[in-house]
Amino acid sequence: MSEAIDWTPKAHAVLQAASDLFYERGIHAVGVDVIAKRAGVTKKTLYDRFGSKERLVVEYLTERDSQWRRFLDGHLVPADPSPRGQVAAVFNASAAWARERGRKGCSMINAHAEISDPAHPAYPVIMGQKRWMLALFTDLAAAAGVADPRQVGEHIMLLHEGAVVTAGMRAIEDPFTSAAVAASALLE
Amino acid sequence: MSEAIDWTPKAHAVLQAASDLFYERGIHAVGVDVIAKRAGVTKKTLYDRFGSKERLVVEYLTERDSQWRRFLDGHLVPADPSPRGQVAAVFNASAAWARERGRKGCSMINAHAEISDPAHPAYPVIMGQKRWMLALFTDLAAAAGVADPRQVGEHIMLLHEGAVVTAGMRAIEDPFTSAAVAASALLE
DNA sequence: GCACGACTATACAGATCGGTATATCGATGG
DNA sequence: CCATCGATATACCGATCTGTATAGTCGTGC
Fold this sequence. Notes:
The structure is a homodimer.
Chain A: H1 9-25, H2 32-39, H3 43-50, H4 53-76, H5 83-101, H6 107-114, H7 123-143, H8 149-169, H9 175-186
Chain A binds a DNA duplex through helix 3.
């Protein structure tokens, strides 16, 4: 395992600044000087806390992933507990997330586009989220009692991924309700 | 309009090298020195032909877009001409394209992740392809005689986008046949 | 009172970034 | 025969990149 980070107040400020900048402009497009400046911190502090830019990238993706899971959970719990209701709630949550935090699409997909080396420590984080979402949809499809849950789970996953990237590019008016309608039809 | 490019043999070599590198590693991660070296050319030649890296990016995306449209056309013409057959052929073509050229997903989506400025000259190229694909799917849905062609066209578009990004990340075994099955179900 | 941890400020390293300059070469074609 | 064109080699520009080094400030806890 990599060494734990000492989460001093300024460390949080650095990660916050890095997250905003990475997501908005892309990882390679943002230098550590800019991150430090935005955080109101010197580069020294940044390197004392995180050790490298790469580590900062991993923390950015890890934190955003766990925020997304908490956010999703907050939408699933109060929603209609039936499988179909839960699927609808996922798309609702994604729409809300996109509105509040996701004007540039999925941070995992975007990061994946910028990282060429599969040995990069950010890879497990990215793949982990995708696998987790797929498992969620597959479980819901199974609970809904469809004939082939793995197949339908994949279909809903594809609709969801498509909606997320399309929302980031504003190619379709309201991709999440559109995807939700399609997902509902596939669960019949 | 921007000035036309003088397509000397070395200009083609430069674009070829740039395309491979941009797609494989990302745009910001590749410097013009590396492109020139890979093309067996000096930076002078690169700048004589293209004038700027930005222009090279635009040409990269434009060329890849037109290659994709030709590739797709080559798969649509000999396929079953029925609307459902044509939709299936699109997913077949995408699967073949991903196998041959698309190990890192959609170049348009990836480029979009790296370009923050909407005024960037590459934006129209990116949006143009997405709009074109959506129109294609909507037309096919209309030809298939579904009740709401715009809605179903969007659904198939979302499935396709999802399959492309998922293929780039290897999160699902065979996303294109999976997406094709779902699209076929939505056309019932 | 004093050590320690978190931080600031500044400077610098070595490499690479996009882009330009100068000068030279070989082939092609009027 | 000579001008032009595509290309070469090499060197340079200022800026920025990730990362390090030195020195000093400030507040808390023992």
